[in-house]
Amino acid sequence: MNNQNKTAVITGISSGIGLALAKKLLAENFNVIGTTRSGVLNDFQNDNLEVVALDATDKGSVASAISRIAELTKGIDLVINNAGAAPDIFDVTPEINAFNQTIATNITGVVFFNEPLLEIIKDGGQIVFISSQMGLPRNADVTGTAYCMSKAAINMYAVILAKRLAERNIKVTPVHPGWVQTKLGGDQAPLTPEQSAEGIYNGIADMESGRFYNITIPGTEDF
Ligand SMILES: NC(=O)c1ccc[n+]([C@@H]2O[C@H](COP(=O)([O-])OP(=O)(O)OC[C@H]3O[C@@H](n4cnc5c(N)ncnc54)[C@H](OP(=O)(O)O)[C@@H]3O)[C@@H](O)[C@H]2O)c1
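# NAP complex -> structure
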């Protein structure tokens, strides 16, 4: 694939899947604009990587990040919404602070980062949401109320956006990245971040807009 002159925006590249995705897209010749909460990325640099500060839970930070991204690029080819939090993943009873943090990061922060970004995304571009199979009602268990609800909401937002953006030929897909060895996924997970990023990259070109996609299962999945 010729990705020369293509620009990707990836949120949450300080660690885990986001960092692996940034490295993968750079290796595939994308220019990458990656976000971290601090606005810096220690231990990794690349001439084609710009790092922008974004705290998804802070309105001012979201507005500054959007302005900076608009200065850095005339048009985005690919957005990967990867930043996420899961403070209640092992809890049965919802706790209000963890609940609010999850909703602010995984839903409100994602929606109100993407809305102003839509103007800068090229027609024919693509938006990927790193979701989770835990956001599919058929996988509901007793734990992780806020996290599972947040990913279910993002699956819905992705389908709504897929319909809104169909005229502009912008593909929108929620993607389960597998169970991955990260701060969020833990050490027991079977996939490395690099394997997950490889699977996401290989899958996204053929994804159908508005469908849920699990990179560990070939083909698209219904909700
Ligand atoms: N690992 C898995 O098995 C798995 C499975 C399904 C889905 N996912 C999804 O994959 C995505 C990436 O997670 P990961 O597993 O790679 O975990 P991770 O290593 O903990 O990475 C999470 C990223 O999100 C960023 N982030 C958290 N809160 C933020 C906020 N308020 N504003 C901006 N950025 C914020 C983190 O930044 P800081 O470093 O500043 O905290 C970090 O860069 C998440 O959306 C997660 O739900 C993961």
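# post-check
Residues 12, 14-18, 37, 54-57, 82-86, 105, 130, 132, 176-177, 179-180, 182-185, 189 surround NAP (CB under 6 Å).
The mean pLDDT is 97.
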